[in-house]
Amino acid sequence: MLKLWLPDGSSRTAESGISGKELIAGLDPSLKKEVICLKVDGELKDLSTLLPADAEVSLVRRSDPEAIEVLRHSAAHIMAQAVKRLFPEAKLAIGPAIENGFYYDFDLPRPLPPEDLAVIEEEMKRIIKEDYPFIRQLVPKEEALARLRAAGEKFKEELVSELEDGEISFYQQGEFTDLCRGPHLPSTRYLQAFKLTSIAGAYWRGDSSREMLQRIYGTAFFSREELDAYFKLLEEAARRDHRKLGRELDLFSTDDQIGAGLILWHPKGGRVRQVIEDFWRDEHRKNGYELVFTPHLGRSQLWETSGHLGFYRENMYSGMEVEGQEYLIKPMNCPFHIAIYKSRSRSYRELPFRWAELGTVYRYERSGVLHGLLRVRGFTQDDAHIFCRPDQMPEEIDRVLAFCLKILRAFGFKEFKLYLATRPEKSVGAEERWAAATEALRTAIEKTGLPYEVDEGGGAFYGPKIDLKIKDALGREWQCSTIQFDFNEPERFELTYKGADSQDHQPYMIHRALLGSLERFFGILVENYEGAFPLWLAPVQAVVLPVLPANLEYAGELYDWLRASGIRAELDSRNEKIGYRIREAQMQKVPYMLVVGSKEAESGQVAVRTRKEGDLGVWSREELLARMEKEIAEKS
RNA sequence: GCCAGCGUAGCUCAAUCGGCAGAGCAGCUGAUUUGUAAUCAGCAGGUUAUCGGUUCAAGUCCGAUCGCUGGCUCCA
Q1: CATH class, range A542-634
Q2: Which nucleotide is closest, CA of A480 to its C1'?
């Protein structure tokens, strides 16, 4: 006998030795239709599985989180079957479910143009209509290898050869059989709402020295509505694309003649950046940081000492020779901050040092990875380095993490996820230091009460780190902040401070960036706000609109008064109708539109219209300014 | 860097089989005197990314370079 758990939490007993299909036969028909597969003693199984005795079985319904993965994985198989029908000589690689869909990698006789997606979709629809059951087969490893070799499936063969001896499972649907762990949908007809989305190159096993395969991406849902909603979300993301908004709102650009990945900040983007920087500097001063400034170049010897020429050279631009000395453009600020530390001897009494810099660095990124503001070759990090004693270290970590959250929250981000990356196999530094630092990071994370994951072995070779991801208005995650220990550079530069015991000690060194880079962070902000910046960040906070040229004098007076009050105001006195100018200001996402006609000029008032609420009627100037100042102070 | 797709006016896009490069918006000039999301007219705007090739003829076909897009690898 086995125990069957129903979704409502109740349980009943059932015979063992029957299949899942038979098991659910007696259930409520509406529930029966919902069941995709089973969980037997916590493991996902096909509905056709013969159930063992004494098992605990629960039903996996369409709405359960595991079900969508089963659906998508089966969709990948159906796509592979379709591709095999169209290209019998295709070689199969892997085809998993992923976050928003699925993919399958193939080695194909010719490159697929995008038009082929529709052809493959048609074939998939045929397979779905033919309604093949997914049939699981168990084959001994040797036989599986022989079978795959005979079929010329070299990628699959490689995968099986690395599995442990024993039974290997295959799944068959119609004429198509594929190596697979499963489970799958009961039959192909269960796939109703799907779409193939793109074709891309992908290295076999993600290794750039191996074959380039063709990857077909698609997505699938249980209902048409969910599929449509997904594409709506993609459209929404396209509307928010910072590259599009950057052009439309005149925030930034790039120029072929200047080079890829090099950003031109236009005046309006520059205003936003200035506000961000001013806020950042103020907060750093309040939080015990000193601001430093360092050059863009340094002699190659510096990078030799720091070790960057060893482990970072492929990301650095080639050097330039000046009077027989080689200079390199900086990809990081740390060696310069270290040089400040080393400019004189340091005492334990002085520590900690918290030195921050908006340091512009240049990194050679391979051309294929560049993307708008989010991945560039020249960028300004909101960098800082903390040098402290071991006894200060835990508190410094606490402080820096709390500070980080405070800054990010000011920009309207509310959801965070933290990742603690621990010591990788290949690394430098004393074991005690790694242990103490990792512990301090973990404790600091736990104090925040925020969700986190441990990325075992995911740290840099020189130290453990915390990466912090923010969630934007569309629920997308972005990594900005990072807090990293460095056990490498203090050693290489022989950093010391004189302790109370008159001995030399090595300080802890912590790298940290809160916003990450100003370019990237600005890009994320543009997408998060869809270009409609809150008042404190808006490049143009208010535009003054005289109704008639006769009102220009009063409009100019209001404009001057706003500017004098610290508001980023503009005056639009163009010879256009008021509706035209309002439309333009609205499309430029200006928060306040201030209409002044003869009535306002006489009374010394202003007709206020906001981007969000529309016409608010006639206000006194003081009321308007009070409202704006409050909104700016609240960063709302 | 690799795979695939792409590059026409500031922007969005036309241009049939290789046969005179075109429109809307933006810009400029003029008229209009305007009250909460587009007033009208005229003008100007191009070495079709760049360089080379095939052809009587190239935006269109071929090659190289630069750049962009989506992925892969890598990452703030």
Answers
A1: alpha beta
A2: B76
Is residue A195 flagged as an active site residue?
Answer: no
pLDDT digit string, tens, across residues A29-60: 777 778 888 888 888 888 888 777 777 788 88
| Strand B nucleotides within 7 Å of a protein CB | 1-5, 7, 11-12, 31-39, 49, 66-76
- Look up A337 and say whether it is catalytic: no
CA–C1' span, A462 to B33, in Å? 71
CATH T-level topology, domain A66-236: Threonyl-tRNA Synthetase; Chain A, domain 2 (3.30.980)
Q: To 5 degrees, how large is the angle CA A191–CA A196–CA A197?
A: 140
Q: Which CATH number fits domain A268-529: 3.40.50.2000, 3.30.70.1400, 3.30.930.10, 3.40.50.920?
A: 3.30.930.10
The more confidently predicted of residues A455 and A21 is A455
Q: Are A66-236 and A542-634 equal in CATH topology?
A: no
- Which listed residue (A39, A284, A465, A609) is catalytic? A465
Q: Which of A84, A147, A363, A609 is catalytic?
A: A363
- Shortest CA distance to A470 belongs to which of A523, A429, A542? A523
Of A105, A107, A382, A383, catalytic: A383
CA distance A261 to A380: 13
- Indicate if A505 belongs to the active site: no
ipTM of the complex, rounded to two decimals: 0.93
Active site residue A334: yes
Mean pLDDT of A476-482: 93
Show the tokens assigned to A43: 């493991």
pLDDT for A372-404, tens place per residue?
999 999 999 999 999 999 999 999 999 999 999
| Residue A488 burial class via C-beta count within 10 angstroms: exposed 0-12, middle 13-18, buried 19 and up | buried
